[in-house]
Structure formats: C-alpha cells, structure tokens
Request: fold
Amino acid sequence: MNNPRQITTLRAAAVISSTIIGVGILSFPRYMTEAGNSSAPLVAFCGVLFSFISYWLLASLCQRFPQETLFVFSRRLIGRPLAAIFTVVIMLLFIVLTGLTVRQFGDVATTVLYKKTPIEATIFLMLLISLLSSRRNVVKFSYIHFFYLPLIVGSILVTILLSLKNVDMLNLQPVLMAPSLQFWKGAQEATYLFQSSFVIVLLIPFMEKPGHAVRAGAWAIFLSGAIYVLIVIASVGIFGAEETKLLIYPTLEMARSAAFGEGFLERLDAIFIIIWVISVYTTIYTTYYISAYLLHKLLRFRDQRMASTVLLPVMFILAMLPSNVFESYRWALHLGNAGMMLMFGYPLLLWTVYLLRRHKEKVTS
Amino acid sequence: MKIQLPRTLALLLLLTIAAPLLSGCWDQVEIEDRALVLGLSIDKIPADDTQKEDRVTHIHDNSLPTEMISVTAQIAVPGRVPLGPGTGGSAGEGKTSPVWVVSVRGISLDDAMNNLQQQIADPRYLVHLRIIIISEEIARGSLAELNDYLRRNPEIRRRTWLLVSEGRASAFMDVNPPLQRVPTLYILSMMEKSVSSGKFPRDYIGTFWSADSRWGQSAYLPYVALRNKDNILIAGLAYFSGGRMAGKTAPIEIGGFMAMQGMDPGGYSTLLRTRELGIVMTKTNERFTRTRSYIKDGKPYLSYEIFLEGDLDEHYSSDIPVNSPQKLHEIERDFEQQIQTVLTGLVKQTQQDHSDIFGMGELIRSHHPAYWRKHIHGKNDWESLYSSVGVDIRLTLHIRRVGLKHD
Amino acid sequence: MQDWKDKYASYIDKQQSSSTEQKPASGSRLTGELKTDLPELQARLGENGDLVVRDFLLFGAYPAAMLFFSSLVNMEQVREHVLKPLMAPPPGQSEVPEDTGGMIHYIWSTAVQVTQGTTTADLSALPQAAVKGDLILLIDGIPEALRMEMRQIEMRGVEQPQTEQVIRGPREGYVEKLENNLSLLRYRLQSTDFRIEISPLGERTQSRVALCYIDSVTDSSLVAEVMRRISLIHTDGILDAGYIEQFIEDQPLSPFPQVQSTERPDKTVAALLEGRVAILVDGSPFALIVPALFNQFFETVDDYTERFIMGSLIRIIRLIALACSLFFPALYVSVISYNPELLPTDFAVAISGGRAGVPFPAVLEVLIMEVSMEVLREATIRLPQMIGGALSIVGVLVIGQAAVGAGLASPITVVIVALTTIGSFATPAYNAAIALRMLRFPLILLAGMFGLYGVMIGTILILNHLLYLESFGVPYMSPYIPGKWRDLKDTLVRVPLWWMRRRPSFLHVRDTDRLPRSVPTAEIDQILRQGDETDE
Reply:
C-alpha cells in the first residue's frame, strides 16, 4: 500500500489538463479573435500544437530520468550553481504566475459578482484554500485534480452545448487565413495558457509508468486544447469576430446569453463563474504547489508546510500590485513571454548538454 | 494516523484570525431591500424643457451635452405581487399596482439612473431588467452612449429586449394589461411568444449588439406601437445604419425579412388577390433559404432562393372551388409573384437607407475574403457599398394543407 | 485467550511463514493416531476463539478428543447427552469391542444420545462438518471419526434492527451477547476460511472483542493493521463498539465517520465477503466494519435485495437528498441575499413579496429555522414513538405556520428548511447524516458572508477533506478516487449481481474473484440468451 508510484497515466493527464483549464478561459477568445478574426479557432489550434511541442521537449527529457525531478538531474547535467539559478528563476516565475492568476480571478469576481466586496477578501480566501491544500503530498494532489476535472470539463461543455444553437456558421468563415505576424503572435499567446503543464516534472517520480509522461501530456493538452478551441468556436460563432473583440470576457458573455429552457433558467453567468471558481482553484493550486515545492527544496525546509505558509503573504502582495484590469493583463502577457522563453529554452539547453554528454560517453567507451 | 492536534489547533487559530478580516457581508442586500428595475423607457426631452436637472452627478453643465433624456423606470414593489398562484380574491383590484413607475431625467442614461437612485430609498438593481423601450426620436439619434453603458454594466442581461417605440416610450410603462400582474413581464412574454410563434426574429439586445459591431451587417430592433392605450402592437422592424435608426418596415415585411433569412417557424399569413380564384389567405409554416454570392465585374451579387411551405387558410370567394392541384398551383404562382415584389421592395428600401439588415456583407466577407479585404475597411464602407449590391430573389411556395373543407 | 498484542505478533509471524509453508493436501485420511490427527484438524480449522477441543478418556480408559464450535452447539446438551455417557465406565460391565467398527457401533448404540450422526475416515471433510455445527469425536487408535449433529444456535432475543430497517431482506439484528452475534454470522457464512479472533479488552471490563475476517480473502496487512490498532487501545472499559471506533479511526477530528457500524449480520457478512474486517464487542449490538468509505454511507441492504434498476435509482435519489440536505439552505441564502438574478423574474418579484415583512436577513432567518429544526429533531428522537409523532406534527405544522404568520420567517424559508431536514433523513447511515447536517451550518455562514463564492469555497474545503481522508489506508472517496473502471460497478448505480464478479480492488484482497474463474462469463451469457429466446 505504501508504493510511492501511485499516479496512473490517466491521473497525470487529469492533473495537467485541469491545471491548464483555468482563469484564461474567460478572455481567451478575445485574444484569439484579435489575432485571427474569424480564423480564431485556427490560431488557437496552432497554439495548442506549439504548446505540445514545448511540452514534448520537456517531458521526453524528464522521461529519461524517471527516478528524479528536473531539479535533481539538472544539477548533474549543468552543474549545481547553474541548476540552482534556473530553479530559482522557475520558482519566481511560478510565484508571480500564481499572484497574477489569482488577481485576474479577483478582477472577474469583483466586477461581475461582488461589486462591493474588496478584492483583497476574494483573493485572500482563494489563496487560503490553496495554502491549506498544498500541504499535502503529491498523490493527494493528483486525487484532487482527478476528482475536479469532470466537474470543470462537464460544466464548460454544458455551457458550450447550450450556446451552440445560437452559433452562426457565417461568423466562423473564412476558416483559414494567411499566416501573418499577428497570427503567430496570437498562437504564441495561446501557448501561455499551457505553461502550467510544467507540473509533469513533479509527477514523473511518482508515476506508475514514468515512460507514459508524454502520452499523459498529449491527452491532457489535447483535451484542454479541444475545450479552448471549442470555446473560441462558440463565442466567435455567436458574437462574430468584431463583437468578441469588444467584450472583456467573451466566454462569460456566452454563458450570459445562453438560457436553459426558454427563460426558465437565465443568467447562467453566475453559475458559470461559480463553477469556474473550481477550475481557477485547481490552476492556482498547481502553481502554488510548484512554488511551495521548489521553495521547500531550495531552502531545505523539513516539510512543505512551512514553505507554503511563507509564500502566502508574498503572493498576496504580488496579486495586489497591478492597479487595474488592463495592467494585470499586460503583466500577465509579459510574464507569459518570459515563461515561454524559459519553458522552451531551459529544456533545450538541458537536451543539448544531455546529448553532448551521451555522445562523449559513447566515444570514451 | 497520528493525531495532529497541535497543527490543527494552529490552523483553527489562523482561521479565527482570518474570520474578522473576511466576515464582511459587503454585497449582502436582501432581495426585498433591492429596488428591482424591471423595465426602462427612454425619451428625448424637447429642447425647450431642459431647465430642470437634479445635479446629482455634476454641477457645471457647460461642457456637457445640452440634450437631455427622460428615463421612466418600472420598479417591482415587494409585497404587492402575492406568492404562488393567484388567490382569486378581488381585494384591492386595480388600486395597488405591483410596480412603481418613477420618472427622472438626465444627460446620459447613467446620469439618469443616478438621479433615480437619489429619489428612491432602496439600492436599484438592473439584474432583472427585461425590457428597455426607446423612443424613435432617441433611436434616430446616436445609440452609442446608451450601448456603452449597457454593455459595461454587468447587471444587464444579454437577453434583454430593446424595443423602439412609436411616439413616447414612457407611455409603455403605464400600460395595465389584464393578462399579467406586472406590465413589463407582459411585454416580455409577448415578445418571447412572438418569437416562438414565428412573428418576430429572436432579436435580444445581445443580438443587436453583435449585428451592430459586424462590418457586414446592420442592426435592427423591434418597432412597437401602442393601440387603445393598453395594447401593444409589433409594428415592424426598425433598421439602423451607421448606429442610427434609418427607417422602419411594415409588419408583413417582418415575415418577408424572416423568409429571406430562412428563419423558422413561419408565423405570418398573407392576404392576396389571385387572378382567377379571388381573394385567399395563406399561412406560412416553414421557411428555407439558400443563398449564393458571387462577384461580377468587381461588384458583389447575391441570389436568394426561398422555399416556403404553407397552408391555405381562407378563401373569400367560396363560389369558385379550390379542389385540384392546378388551382393550388395557381395560388402558389400568384403568391410567389406578389411576395417577390414585396421582398424586392424591402431590399430596395433598405438599400436606399444603407442598412444591410440581411447580413449580405457577412456572406461576402465569409465567401469572398479577398474581395472583402481589398474593398472594405470599416462598417461604413460596406453600408455605402450595400446600396449598389445586386440582389436576385426567387421564391417558391408549396401549399401542403387546405384544411377540412373539400372545395 | 491471548492478549491482543500477542495475537498481533503471532499473526504477523504466521503471515510471514505461511508463504513458505505448504498447504496440506486435501482428501487425506485419518491416521487413527490422536496425536497427529487432532493437531492436523486444528490446523485446518485455524485459530478460532470459539473452537472447543475437549480431550478425555473414553469410558475412563481410551484417550479421545471432542471438537466443536461453542458458538454453534448447546454446551449443556453436549455435557448431558454426550460427554457424560462417554466418560462414564461402560454400562453393565460389558466388554468394549476394540476394533474400529465395533467400537463405533458400540458408542453409537449404547452411549451417545443424539439423533443423527455418521462416521467418516476423511480428514478433509471434518472441518466443514465442524463449522456446520457438528460435534466431532476422535478416538485414539481408531482411524474413523464420529460426527454427531448437535447444532443449536441460540436465537434468543433476536429482533428486527431498529436503526437499519429494510423493506426486503433479513429481519435479524444483533443482540448484546457476543456468542449469539457470532452464531448469527457463522450461520450465514458457512466457510472454513471464516476466522474469528477473540480476546478481552479493557483493564476492568475485560470485554471480549471479536475480530472477524475471511482468511483467504482479506488483505493480511489490513487484518494486521486492525489488530495493531486494537492492541494499542488502553482504557479501563469497553462498553460498546463505539468505544473501539473512537480509538481506531484515522482522523478523530473529521466530521465524517471512518468506521461503519451496523446492526445487521447480513450486512456484516456482505462486507466480510468483499474483504473487509468486522469487529464485534460483547455487550454491544453493533458491529464495526473497516475500512469504511464515503460510498457505503448511502448504501442499504435494499439496494442489493431489490432488482438492480430499482436499487440504482433509489441510490441516485438518496444522493440527491444528501446534496439537498447539505447545500439547499446555503444556496437559498446566497441567491436571496447576493444573486437574485438567478431566479426567474416573476418568481423573484414574488419571493421578494414573501419576504417583505421578515425583519431578519436571510442568513439569520435560515439559521434560526435550521437550529429550531435540529432542536425539534433531537427532542423527538428519544421520545416513545406515539408522543414523538404527535410532537413532530406540532413542531412542523404549527410552529412553521405560526412563524410565517408572525412574520418571523418567509414561507419559502419554511419550505427550504423542511426539504433539508427530510433530505437528511434519507441518508441511511445515522452518523454520516449527522456529519452532513452539521456541515450545513458553516456553509450557511459562508453563504451569508460571500454568497455563492462562499458556498463554493466551503464545498471545495469539504471535498478536499474527503479526498484527503483515508480509512485504514484506503482513500475515503474510493472507488471514485483513485478511479478504476471496474470498481465503479457498485457506486452511484449498482449493476446486476451476476456482473459483479470481482471484489473491490481498493481493498487489496487476496482473492480478487468472487466466483472461481472456472465459471465462465459465457455461461451466464448463455443463460441470458436462453431467456431471450423463450421470450420470443
């Protein structure tokens, strides 16, 4: 019963996809439409493909060291000091990511649902439950994601299905567009949402079959990618590209214009936000968990509880820094850029060193 | 397994510290303490009558627009609408209205809403705002400010109905229909039912906004009029061009519009004089439309093929029997000819007013993206081009049923 | 009787040695040597607290031994009609024939006074006979054993269980006496693999505690873990199974019960067959079943005795009731005070009318009503049934009506509170129902503070707690988490019994198959297909 390798491939996939589906779903269609007008789904799809390539780079490397996390074997590959620097940078990235994600969540909650509630209270509550849950071990961590994923996916799918009858196919045409700079930028922005698939690094040492890490990621990225693409299709299909660009939260407006039974249950947006709380929670939980884990390893705390408690005020302050919605979105974009470079560059570096070393070993032997 | 009592105690302590920070009930307003605005009407105030403003949101109005609007709100009064099915009693009939009608004025809608708040005790909430009626005068002016406020406000539903009224819009807030306790809800159910019976397209404020922001389509709204003080008539479509109302159609043209769009179910009956069978009425049940677009000589062309299915409803001159397929075909032929002229007239009319309510531009945009990118750089471009688009309409009616009478 | 600590130690030893030890071949014959036959037989029956081995001198001359289960036979009768004549010298000074057939015949015809019995030379048949309630007599020098039917199960005072009534299913419940309870179990589970370990517990009460499991099914580490936890109990008195529950549960601070307690022997046997462990205490009419999972608390016997479609539907309804009892008041509060836009407009207008005269905010109103409902429930639960019924009518009807009339509560609140209470009664397990009922109050408070967001936060906290919880090493939310498709056959829906061929995998059972694999699925399919044909 105390076998540490308890995380099945399916559960690893669930962790990744419930992490990916998060705060971004509300504004995602807007970014995509800004980049591609009626071809927004195509942009989103390209983004999904790019994220998978980036993920593959990372996971296939980690698969070669099934016993250790990235932070352990990187020390052997590029040396202790350099590895430590990279680990610190990754940790900072995830700390800021948590702060900004929770801030975006707070923005939505206070604009749409609770206008008088101070944003601090909403944010603090969300961080508090993440704190409470990031004190557990990785297996329990995967339980949580596995349990919530059907709720998240189910509710989003129901919203999409209810909206589908209002979709006007004309709005989605022309489907294809000539790839322009704008197009690639949009696709790049789409990959930001998938950066948290980095969590696989923590899972590999606990997976039943570490060799299936890439497969788990493939399922996860394509499931969550499909959800994202569907959301883009639905909101562009309903509103049209021009209107989608005007809306700050197109997905929310989509839930808002859907009705369940003629007029019997309207205003699905409140319900949608409530269920969206879960998906935000799972996302923040993951990034919080990664941050706490890294801090715990870096400072060699006895357990993770201490690290996660220390992080709470830091993240809270970070979340309070942006002064308005536009600023928090801009910061998130900058962070996404930085994250992309790191998530793409670091594995690439490790791969090169790894291949060189292996080559050398072969030569010497 | 180990009893981790100290840790849990520390946790409880943390929670008790957090509790006073968290307990605020900031947004808690009981439902009966909210002034739920159910309907709004917006009118323009005649220029000579602008002296009285409450100055709730501003003091100097030199730099502000001089035109003012008058907003009439219908607010639900808690307690006047009994819970559950009507108890049937005639106590206080007609005297206690379940809604409170408040009229305020202001420079913008938000300004007026703030003036309104200054006048009533309970905080106003627009979460149950279902109907907004604007007068034709307002609609012919710019709606940009109105749309901006309504879009920004998260309380507004995208499924609110925005109606354009003939004459003063505030008159609609005072109607007292016998079918519903709350007048606004009567207008709401009237609009919803007209959608489900095919009398009107599903044109919520959200649909209006979407059409308004599309480059290749112009927006339209229901046009309503008051008859006999309490009866509300759907008098046609108010169509827009460049964000302003450009004109309105006749009620039967709503049916024509829906036919062009292929919207089901069909709900309109047509009264027409045939050449040999006298006056007949047919009722349209189903509509199906096939559209094609092509570019000829650098100009967009569209062809509409409309297929209708209907019933023979009434035949005036009963002495001439309608008892053979040929005779039905005659009716169909005459119908097709006459309605075709109606539809062409409708298209012509909107082309003159530069209002593409059919979304022909969207067809061109999606089917001929290259042409579109070359020629259209904004909504105005299309609306001016629209008047020169060639439109070709072909109509086919199939009469499926003739009712229980044989000849 | 050993101490629990020694038992734990010897069990561990045995588990370690049993892997190397070879099982005795079945079908072996009696040797006739008492010294070899008796230990062999005892080994086959295993450690059992209620197994009695009585050796004596037959007719005062020949060494012999008698073997039976004390829980299955009447000791008084054994003494009077078997032991007494056998130990007495042969009547009438007549010669006792010393050959095999003669001796048995002599005993059968002159000494013992039982109605039925046989002889057998097959050693492997004897354990089965013993667990059926036969008395086995082995005589030194004679390679045949005499089986005498002495089965008598004391059923005195067995009544219908009060807390777990069923519509269809056995009507027997446990009584206070341990032997009776054990015999109720053995009577249902006539298997040689069924093990009962008995030892006293409690410094002063010395209450006998019985640990029951099926040896070939139950995970040995689970049995060891239960024994370990029981051996760690230090208290002066065990007066009920509930005492033990509090000592051995995983998380004493959790509101959710991690040990199932039942009054029903049939439920216990079903749990044992799945590979769980049951604990019975002398003097308590409740058995504890571990590990207990969340899913078990809304399952009843009726789900299994009724046909599977009905069983599944009722289970789903029960789950809805459970969700109602937990969330309804909180949702009501948050919709009324925070998000009235969720209501249909005409209903919202009407509700605001219903609440127009109520002086309290919705949170307070709901809390007052809920608390008074709990008081009412607590007040009626211990009253005799006649008075209780009358009082609850007075409480519900009169107070509810009066509260609305006096403007203390709105009619909708009364409806919500009534629905909640009724919903909480639909959860079959009393302790789980209480847990959910109590959790509803923090949820209402959260709803009052943050509206739907608060309810969601509360729900996440509750769900996370459930996901973290374990009962004896098994995740509490099994089989949903960690999910295995094949275990989902007995969760929200219950598939037909013939489809549940395997035991739940989360219990790590030794024998995963309920049926031997030799019974092929094809056979079942064939039976089904024949059924189809006859329909046509």
Remarks:
- Chain C has a mean pLDDT of 83.
- Residues 485-535 of chain C form one domain.
- Chain C has four domains: 29-149, 178-292, 305-475, 485-535.
- Chain C touches chain A through 27 residues (CB under 8 Å).
